[in-house]
């Protein structure tokens, strides 16, 4: 049974899974929307197989995407994605997917020294395909999608497998295929990032540093009220009230709707939509006892020891030299996070170096001896 282009029901999902049983390579993309919704909503998953068949999987209609999980964890199936971090993050976090054997075309291009890493640019430069105008700002939760949106979404996956073949040819010519394999394995194994709520985020808004304790208390309540309202109406916080408006409200501390209207950006619509929440937040902030007012605490960066600083400087100097030798960006050769890690806890030998998370065998084999010398 050949599945339809759209996968919206469990029966259609079963048909898709059955059709992919003998597939050795899949290309995957997602469309999520944080521009029109809050929190970010996963709106579409595009899947194409190595026979050139593309499908649009609708997570807004399906009870789960779990049947696709077996393909993601199957090391015998290559999953081709572009800039895979976000796509995999959604699937891991929302559906608990485990992932093995991915090929990230952005990583591959980076290790070829390509400077423009957009998918559109890679498709044009490597396989001569013009994907058309970007639709990244569309509201992908709206149904039905237009024919132009469907074409755009399918193009993002239908050309990824041919693109991979061209990138692999170039990588093999330079002897860098294993480099990309190791870097992609790190991305595949990375746990889904959980963005923890920051209780002090309001203090970092532009202009908040000029507020006294009472103003900060009001701003804190306004910031939380905006978040609550944004979730309730499924709109990004900036569409409810801008940051500059929050700070202006914290300065003025309005007690009635007419006073709210005196603030730039606060219209009748704003008062109608959020006026009650604004006034309640101001009252809560004004009611905070003096002894419990928020206090801005200094957050000095930890100062590294002299030895750590010397190792960091030595590694940065080495990285510049190494990048010239292999004609790649210094951040590709050795990211700053690895410099920080090795400078704080230098390995004693090549085996220990290769075991440092993120270093990989290829870096240890190619640069290991010199790295240890610089760290010594």
Q: What is shown here, in short?
A:
It is built from 18 helices and six strands. The protein is an alpha/beta fold and 376 residues long. The chain folds into three domains: 6-189, Nucleotidyltransferase, domain 5; 201-292, HRDC domain (DNA polymerase, domain 1, Orthogonal Bundle); 306-375, HRDC domain (DNA polymerase, domain 1, Orthogonal Bundle), CATH 1.10.150.80.
Explain what you see.
This protein is an alpha/beta fold and 376 residues long. The protein folds into three domains: 6-189, Ribonuclease H-like superfamily/Ribonuclease H (Nucleotidyltransferase, domain 5, 2-Layer Sandwich); 201-292, DNA polymerase, domain 1; 306-375, DNA polymerase, domain 1. The protein has helices at residues 10-19, 69-73, 84-95, 105-110, 119-127, 147-158, 160-174, 177-189, 213-233, 237-240, 243-252, 257-260, 268-287, 306-326, 330-333, 336-344, 350-355, 360-375, and strands at 6-7, 25-33, 41-49, 54-57, 78-81, 102-104. β2 (25-33) and β3 (41-49) form a beta hairpin. α5 (119-127) packs across α7, α9 crosses α11 (243-252) and α14 packs across α16. The longest helix has 21 residues, at 213-233. The protein starts with 5 loop residues before the first strand and ends with a helix.
